[in-house]
Amino acid sequence: MTTATTESEKDVERRQVHGVVVRFAGDSGDGMQLTGDRFTAETAAVGNDLATLPDYPAEIRAPAGTIAGVSSFQLHFSDHDIHTPGDAPDVLVAMNAAALKKHLPDVPTDGTIIVNTDGFSRGNLKKAGYDSNPLEDGSLEGYRLHPIAITSLTTTALEDFVESKALTTKEAQRAKNMFALGLVSWMYSRPIERTIEWLEDKFGSRPELADANVKALKAGWNFGETTEVFTFKYDVAPAELPPGRYRNITGNAALAYGLVAAGELSGLTLFYGGYPITPASDILHELSKQKHFGVRTFQAEDEIAGIGSAIGAAFGGALAVTASSGPGIALKAEAVGLANMYELPVVIINVMRGGPSTGLPTKTEQSDLLQAMFGRNGESPLPVVAASSPADCFHAAIEAARIALAYRTPVMLLTDGYLANSAEPWALPDVDSLPDLTVEFAEGPNADGEFLPYKRDPDTLARDWAVPGTPGLEHRLGGLEKADGTGHISYDPGNHHRMTELRHAKVAAVAKTIPDLEVDADTGARVLVLGWGSTYGPIRGAVKKVRDKGVPVARAHLRHLNPFPENLGDVLRSFDHVLLPENNMGQLAMLLRAEFLVDIKRYNRVTGLPFRTSELEAEILELHNSGGVA
Amino acid sequence: MTTATTESEKDVERRQVHGVVVRFAGDSGDGMQLTGDRFTAETAAVGNDLATLPDYPAEIRAPAGTIAGVSSFQLHFSDHDIHTPGDAPDVLVAMNAAALKKHLPDVPTDGTIIVNTDGFSRGNLKKAGYDSNPLEDGSLEGYRLHPIAITSLTTTALEDFVESKALTTKEAQRAKNMFALGLVSWMYSRPIERTIEWLEDKFGSRPELADANVKALKAGWNFGETTEVFTFKYDVAPAELPPGRYRNITGNAALAYGLVAAGELSGLTLFYGGYPITPASDILHELSKQKHFGVRTFQAEDEIAGIGSAIGAAFGGALAVTASSGPGIALKAEAVGLANMYELPVVIINVMRGGPSTGLPTKTEQSDLLQAMFGRNGESPLPVVAASSPADCFHAAIEAARIALAYRTPVMLLTDGYLANSAEPWALPDVDSLPDLTVEFAEGPNADGEFLPYKRDPDTLARDWAVPGTPGLEHRLGGLEKADGTGHISYDPGNHHRMTELRHAKVAAVAKTIPDLEVDADTGARVLVLGWGSTYGPIRGAVKKVRDKGVPVARAHLRHLNPFPENLGDVLRSFDHVLLPENNMGQLAMLLRAEFLVDIKRYNRVTGLPFRTSELEAEILELHNSGGVA
Amino acid sequence: MTEATTLTKKDFTSDQEVRWCPGCGDYAILAALQSLLPDLGARPESTVFVSGIGCSSRFPYYMDTYGMHTIHGRAPAIATGLAVARPDLDIWVVTGDGDGLSIGGNHLIHALRRNVNLKILLFNNEIYGLTKGQYSPTSRLGTVAKSTPMGSVDHPVNPVSLALGAEATFVGRTIDTDRKHLQEILRHAYEHRGSAFVEIYQNCIVFNDGVFTALTDRDAAVHNRIELEDGQPIEFGPEDARKAVVQREGGFGVQIVDVADAGDRTIVHDVDREDPSLAFALSRLAVTPTGPTPIGVFRKIDRPVYEEQVVDQVEQAVARKGRGDIRSLLESGNVWDVT
Amino acid sequence: MTEATTLTKKDFTSDQEVRWCPGCGDYAILAALQSLLPDLGARPESTVFVSGIGCSSRFPYYMDTYGMHTIHGRAPAIATGLAVARPDLDIWVVTGDGDGLSIGGNHLIHALRRNVNLKILLFNNEIYGLTKGQYSPTSRLGTVAKSTPMGSVDHPVNPVSLALGAEATFVGRTIDTDRKHLQEILRHAYEHRGSAFVEIYQNCIVFNDGVFTALTDRDAAVHNRIELEDGQPIEFGPEDARKAVVQREGGFGVQIVDVADAGDRTIVHDVDREDPSLAFALSRLAVTPTGPTPIGVFRKIDRPVYEEQVVDQVEQAVARKGRGDIRSLLESGNVWDVT
Ligand SMILES: Cc1ncc(C[n+]2csc(CCOP(=O)(O)OP(=O)(O)O)c2C)c(N)n1
Ligand SMILES: Cc1ncc(C[n+]2csc(CCOP(=O)(O)OP(=O)(O)O)c2C)c(N)n1
Ligand code: SF4
Ligand code: SF4
Ligand SMILES: [Mg+2]
Ligand SMILES: [Mg+2]
After folding, report:
1. Predicted TM-score (pTM) above 0.90
2. Nearest of A300, A382, A383 to residue A341 by alpha carbon
3. So what's the ipTM on this one?
């Protein structure tokens, strides 16, 4: 992990490393997510490539000091291209006993552990379920352990504030996360200037809090610099990223930006109707800040009203969007069918989480693919698109909007809890290169002086879209089967079969406008690792490891899950083995087997966490070395 | 069709035929469904085998006299085993011009047509879209046409009633369907005594109406007997049905009876919570009449409350049932997931209709299979059972209840609009032969003095079911992932994967208690015709036709769609071709291809109607004669 | 169609065959609305009818305007999205007692409290017509219907009380066959800015004939129709048996007395008071319309319209930050350049 | 546990760690109920807590009774099924302002109108706590929350008014931190036969701290708490500034005046009048609890309980037709024998 080169500077030795995984862990109230976010920002500023994994307890605050209450944030940064937040932390910062207890199993035996000894009171130990103090009973032998009284050091640093009553003791203690951040920033040579600016901005209305936090931050930094505890610090050189302008972005933010962009690119008003649900709520939050783009957000009374309002807005000529997570998508099913029958564009986003039922709301999973495909009554096909990385959510959103608008169809866009909350550096796209999504509304009769709302474009099979306000094109839509062309209610047997086929054909027609699946293959590769969605990072990481061992392998990643790219069957048949890792029990595998009658080697884990590269590496190697053709 | 033998009796010749298909068609207000029902009852009394196909306009009354307003009822009866209501009517009774216009295309050119000439006024012709009167313009040449002024003959027969003001003219006219029934009953030598009794019973409170209807009925009969119009009548001998006690039954009634029986067999209170929807409402209606079985029915405010109430009742220890059709099942999806997580028995019935969306509410379709399998968020497997004929709904309901209770799981039971409303003679089962469904509730601790609600039976993997009121077993269920055993909330990664696997394994375990798929195969059969659900009748009919041609063929029908019978893969692989006709676009075919990687020849039609035996016959023959192995 | 044209009923009548049972109350409502719309100055191209599922919900097909026949119970939600996207349109929602109060009750109350500019017509026939006769949330106790062979045991809901409890700004009630009254109430609803909820007693001749005879039967009606008129004392009944609605004596609420006994206690109707208590009390005079029953406008107050406020915020944001630009959106937050 | 044992709070306290934020109002409600239940004579084995999703809906986990943490908004429907299947149980529903009034509003009003024997506690914190702070249907206008950076524009709903509009037979309101009042209202609710709806003002210290200070801040509370007590004149406020609730002068509804000016017009509270108009008018004194706000029992009337009537019909049917028998069911209608 740390192929260390050393140079010395003053009495602190500097070691050059290629990549590090740091995990901050503490109580929900300890501000670990914020610490992680700031450390990420500092790291981005250095120019490293990075990937993050926030992990917080399910929605309710658990009692302070318990394992259930532990919140953590992991950051992987490096001087080269990376794709995952890292399998195991090189450095664990544990702010209390519960944090140590929960995360220790993930730390390799030679890993570094920084513990806040003030979080190891008798009460803390008990709440964490420790019988004896691990800091004292020798159970941490082998680890590079740094026990530091972070809370006390912080309050000492902030004594003046407390004495002058500018701060309560509690407020002073709460700055301990900044101490930890300062220390780790020193360890990895991260600049803290931006964090200082950020603190000053954040606490603008309470400058004493800003000052105190800055002081704690600096105290942490200085603690590293001045004490004997740390005899070396690390440097991680900037990664050689392609030139461009970069920012960090989480999946949900990128998705929201993609929707805003799609609104601009289409020239339509962006309408978002939705009901809060973890982990999709941030899309609503983000969009509600973008009112100056003309975005209209509607927090509906439930998910059905969310998609209902979107359908209404689509009828009115808006770019209509709704988002939710699995349980909410289930509720939308009937209305998705209506959009299907209406043949109106609606983008439906599912930020997938652990299921079934309420499941694991804050954890990631890919188990709603078949729901996306089949979770409605009747033959109700719709295009399905998936995003593969946090930044990719931007482009996936635009692609979903493109299909919806061009084909007049509801489109299901799949992301997940991991993509939603993780961050990565994003090379900002050239805005001028984004696709043109403009739509032409019907403005007059389309058939001998009449207007037939179900008259179709011969290529896309999209029907004409006339919006209220257009004189002469008055028409009525409904969920009952409609006569081809006129759109009137029809119970005719032949018409129903024909319309059913047309709805399928329209979705199939999307394939003509999607690129062939690209395969990144080594010569001699026997195994193709296929992925979709958020397994992109872990698969790339694993494939790199395999390649680093000199083993040839191939890799491909699907953006479109319905319809598939036209070359997919050929691709699958051109390798001895196809390995398909999914964070579900084999949902895409089922679709592929049914479609192409090819065997697929499944690798399925539903743990609420993304794959580790190491487990995938092992699977690839095993398959590569296995005999014969599957 | 009518391999006629003739004998003479008086001046009316009697012809012996093996089977006849009669279709009554008229305006929604003409009482065609009632006429059909009575004709069915008479036919059952004669001991013929029979099958019916009611077909009425979508839910709203259409304007009188229009094609949209035509309602029809088809009855197929014979002296041998039959399985379908017949492809084409031998006799069409058309009460007005619209009825003729709509149904004429189905009548073979040598078919018999009885028309009510009073329904061919200028207005009638116009509403039906006739430019000239088909009774006069020669366009019906070739058919055996019997133009009869049914309405006038009826009112003439009832003159006295009108004169004495016992009846209005309108009421007198409304009895015309009884005239038609009397006539057709005469034609086919059906006894009308029971209908007379029935009329007397039905109009008990208005004896003058009963008398009038009886008089019209007899007038119709006498018209056949005395006029010169009909020179022969037909006899259809009783079918050689297996000995036993018989009754006619529709699918919805049989289903309701099966549920009542399951309640009795399990010793649990039957609770039904549901919201009306075509074509499932009759299950609620039927059950609400069975209160003397202790059945508690709850007409909920919507479908979600329907299944919600069922889940609550199941927690309370009832045999809990909900039913709906596609759109309503879509709404239940989220709650089905909850039942899945709770691992409580709930029988969920989907009487499938044409989709997507509101679709074709009164028409049949099999397009909700994949919704049953996958229409929820997360990995949420559940057993799926389908009924194959109206009477089979009784046994399918008991089987669904058996699985639900034994495995503590929601079970999806699929029937469809065709099964729901069609009738067939049913050899009543021996009540003592019905399975024992008794359940043991947990009554005390199950693990070292503790009660673990998620402790499982090692065979079935069913968890222990403790109901409120039991002291000491207090426990809480929830939709969040639960720890194996204790059922407490658990976010543990490994536990989630394990529980996901357990939920799959539990459903898979059902396979151990279901019989192997039976194959009805001729030696030398190359083609296996596989079916599920209501295609049973058409497939049997088609297979019989193929066999009658001396072509060997095999046939098998699935009751269990998840899990499959254990021998299914072997069965599929043991024929050159598997033909799978479905009233959807290939849903079971997809599951089979994915599961067994075998090619399946699909035959898919979604017309809102059951298959015709002739189209399936043609498919089978074509496949049989085609080269090679698929 | 240009602004200049004078429109007629025909301009609002579609070419679709009307498919209700002969004698259904829906016909009268349809005809009344088709002939009223031109008078109101409505334009077919900027009018949208949105309905759920039910006999009543077939309504949009017969109007030559834009229309959406949606899914069961969801019309108010769908119409809300349309209103937010297109505040320029005239949007009518047509629903039934099952569609709007059973499966769709929640969307209804939320549209009302938000005051979305929708004219919501609830055709109350106290039955599920389309599914052939099950009792509904407005069916009176003991209703024997398909699913209640021994009579219903659910206490019915009073749509006017419910709407008032849900903060509705406009609440009215009228009757299918009284074309004049119906058109008058619909006119008031149309002219109200915000959600207007109108309960229309509608006779289902097939499955629930005659439940409103207390108000529609000529002889009974004179005794039972309490016509609410803004600014007028609430009196009703024939000249020789005139009644008045007064504050309940020695208590709270309203009660009916002979005019002679009312003295100056007769309540003067007042639709635009902020406090809905009077309107609510009036709605309690008849839990179901079997006796004296108020019809007319119960409440009509001013409150900002939901979608206008949404658009307002958008405009304010644009005014404050300038029209958004994708490039600057992407570059918001910390950016860095790699060269 | 046998009948004889005297139960204590401990018998109703489960072994699960309570997971709310420190300082959350939910703790007080939990403790109050755990200690009240033994007093009421409730038994853990015949008590069931049913909740939806939300912070408040975690409640069942902490009660050592039977419990169901269900899905968002559906608790009243699920509890209704349980009640119909098992009328012998004590069933409590715990819900939030989002769970019970946003997604679940419809199930709530239907449970209330049916008068299912459920004790429904709505923890109103005017916010979505669990999803970290979006405004809710009870949030006051202009609430700046995660999804409303420029302030909410939806007019809030008043849970008490809504429940009354939905024909509820018991409606009460109380406050998380006033243990005595809370327990008293819960006792009344428990003793009521039928649906009892209790709105509990509950402070969300993290996302909406202090919205109820008008009633919880000691100094403000004396001026603002209008404690409704059956049979008592409605007066409130400190001795030196005592106020009374009277019929509105020259109009309809209620208003607040100085006691001195009230004369004999002070309204005497009366919970069991069939007409809910007074209760409704009282609920309008405070659309949101920023000033004088009534708490206590608004309404408590007798009406047959839904599930008891369901069971009644079953018993009547058995009495009339005899206990059903499958064989005769199958043979009902026309049968014939083939030999
Ligand atoms: C999701 C769903 N559930 C149920 C139905 C069946 N359904 C259609 S209309 C209706 C009730 C109609 O009653 P109402 O709203 O009063 O309208 P009416 O027909 O009386 O005008 C029902 C239960 C449906 N179409 N969709
Ligand atoms: C179907 C569904 N939609 C949305 C959510 C997300 N969700 C959980 S609780 C909640 C609202 C909670 O608010 P409230 O009922 O007021 O409870 P509180 O947390 O404030 O006690 C939401 C939106 C969900 N779990 N399920
Ligand atoms: S069933 Fe009733 S409501 Fe429906 S169309 Fe017929 S009369 Fe009208
Ligand atoms: S978020 Fe609010 S309501 Fe939820 S536990 Fe915390 S303080 Fe209580
Ligand atoms: Mg109705
Ligand atoms: Mg809340």
Report:
1. yes
2. A382
3. 0.95
